[in-house]
């Protein structure tokens, strides 16, 4: 029962995210933003849909039970949800599931973006690990972890190229993130 409840919550959450993304897309395009990466975006969407289908097949049909480590996995899952809200709030109208870039925009470097370049991808990757682990869905875990990494290997470099060409990302991307205290101040100027 918990499995179905969690899936319904996640699917509802994804629908809310798509609503926010569509609203932000319209706002940005009205300001002259351009969309990039449409060719690989469809594969990303298909991968996420198939992830849920795979869970719906593997867990009930192979009588998978909840892991004895479920308190750890649910805690990590809840932590990712806090991270997701932080990402969406930090980016505001710039947040989207698509690559939509407003030329000459100032890239956001606050919130989680102050510490890591692509926190949303880290959050999604964590979810793709934690949700299957919670229900011992190891086939789904392995398949979709690999598929996600393949898609991100295309998407992240593509997104960074677009940001470098269209925004002030160069100045932001030079700032070392994740371990900023280990870098001397003179290098940051």
From TrEMBL:
InterPro entries named among the record's database cross-references: ICMT_MeTrfase, Metal_cation-efflux_comp
Cell compartments where the protein resides: Membrane
Keyword flag Transcription regulation: no
Membrane-topology annotation of the record: Multi-pass membrane protein
Signal peptide: none
Coiled coil residues, start to end: none
Lineage summary: Bacteria, Bacillati, Bacillota, Bacilli, Bacillales
Entry keyword set: Membrane, Transmembrane, Transmembrane helix
Transmembrane segments: 42-63, 70-88, 121-147
Protein name: Isoprenylcysteine carboxyl methyltransferase
Highest taxon of source: Bacteria
């Amino acid at each position: 029962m918990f499995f179905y409840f969690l899936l319904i919550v996640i699917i509802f959450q994804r629908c809310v995210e798509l609503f926010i993304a569509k609203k932000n897309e319209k706002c940005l395009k009205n300001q002259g933003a351009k969309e990039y990466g449409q060719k690989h975006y469809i594969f990303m969407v298909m991968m996420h849909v198939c992830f849920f289908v795979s869970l719906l097949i593997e867990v009930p049909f192979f009588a998978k039970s909840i892991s004895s480590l479920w308190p750890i996995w649910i805690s990590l899952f809840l932590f990712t949800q806090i991270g997701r809200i932080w990402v969406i709030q930090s980016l505001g109208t710039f947040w989207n599931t698509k690559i939509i870039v407003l030329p000459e925009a100032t890239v956001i470097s606050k919130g989680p973006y102050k510490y890591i370049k692509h926190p949303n991808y880290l959050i999604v990757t964590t979810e793709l690990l934690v949700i299957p682990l919670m229900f011992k869905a190891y086939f789904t875990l392995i398949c979709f972890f690999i598929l996600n990494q393949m898609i991100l290997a295309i998407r992240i470099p593509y997104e960074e190229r677009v940001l470098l060409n269209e925004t002030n990302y160069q100045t932001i991307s030079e700032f070392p993130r994740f371990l900023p205290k280990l870098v001397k101040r003179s290098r940051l100027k």
